[in-house]
C-alpha cells in the first residue's frame, strides 16, 4: 500500500540527519541500508541504489572496504543492465577498484580484469588507465610516480573529497610498506 516507501523515506531522512548534524556515519549507514531495503521492497531500484551508494561511500570511509566493494559492484552491474545508466557504471567500478587497492594490489588486479569482462568500455577509460598506472607504481614502490599519476589525473578530472581520502590511504600504505625487492 505504499507504506514501505514512506518508511524508506523516513529512514533516509534520519540517515541524512546523522550524516550532517550528528556526524555519526555508522548510524547513517544503518538507516541508509534500512531505507534501501524498503525501497527495494517497493521495486524502487533507483532510490535503493542511491541509498546503497551512500552506504558504500561511508563504509569505505570507515575502512569497511569489503562491504563498499560489494555494493559498488552490485550497483555497477545493475547500471550495466540499463542503456541509460551504463555509463555511470564506470565510476562505480573505479570506486570499487580503489577500495580493492586499499586492501591489496593483487586483488585490485584481478578485480580490474573482472570489470573489463563485465564492461569492456571500462578498459578505454581514463580511470582504468589511472588504476593500471597506480598498480605499477605501487609494485615498484614508486611514491613520486604514484603522486604524479594522481596529480595528472586530477588536473583533467577533479577528484572529490572521497577519492582524495582513499588515494591518501593507499599512498600512506605504500609509504609504510617495506621494500621487498
From TrEMBL:
It is a peripheral membrane protein. It comes from the Eukaryota. Residues 15-75 form a coiled coil. GO terms for cellular component: SNARE complex; vacuolar membrane. InterPro entries: NSF_attach, TPR-like_helical_dom_sf. GO terms for molecular function: soluble NSF attachment protein activity; syntaxin binding. GO terms for biological process: intracellular protein transport; SNARE complex disassembly. It is found in: Membrane. Keywords: Coiled coil, ER-Golgi transport, Membrane, Protein transport, Transport. Its main location: membrane. Belongs to the SNAP family. Required for vesicular transport between the endoplasmic reticulum and the Golgi apparatus. This is Soluble NSF attachment protein.
Amino acid at each position: 500500500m505504499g507504506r514501505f516507501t514512506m518508511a524508506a523515506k523516513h529512514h533516509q531522512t534520519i540517515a541524512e540527519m546523522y550524516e550532517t548534524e550528528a556526524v555519526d556515519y555508522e548510524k547513517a549507514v544503518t538507516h541508509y541500508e534500512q531505507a534501501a531495503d524498503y525501497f527495494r521492497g517497493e521495486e524502487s531500484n533507483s532510490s535503493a541504489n542511491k541509498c546503497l551508494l551512500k552506504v558504500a561511500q561511508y563504509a569505505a570511509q570507515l575502512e569497511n572496504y569489503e562491504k563498499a566493494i560489494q555494493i559498488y559492484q552490485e550497483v555497477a552491474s545493475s547500471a550495466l543492465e540499463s542503456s541509460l545508466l551504463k555509463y555511470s557504471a564506470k565510476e562505480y567500478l573505479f570506486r570499487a577498484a580503489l577500495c580493492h587497492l586499499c586492501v591489496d594490489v593483487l586483488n585490485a588486479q584481478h578485480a580490474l580484469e573482472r570489470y573489463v569482462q563485465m564492461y569492456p568500455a571500462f578498459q578505454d577509460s581514463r580511470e582504468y588507465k589511472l588504476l593500471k598506472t597506480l598498480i605499477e607504481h605501487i609494485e615498484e614502490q614508486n611514491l613520486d610516480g604514484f603522486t604524479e599519476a594522481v596529480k595528472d589525473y586530477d588536473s583533467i578530472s577533479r577528484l572529490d573529497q572521497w577519492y582524495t581520502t582513499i588515494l591518501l590511504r593507499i599512498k600512506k600504505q605504500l609509504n609504510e610498506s617495506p621494500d621487498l625487492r
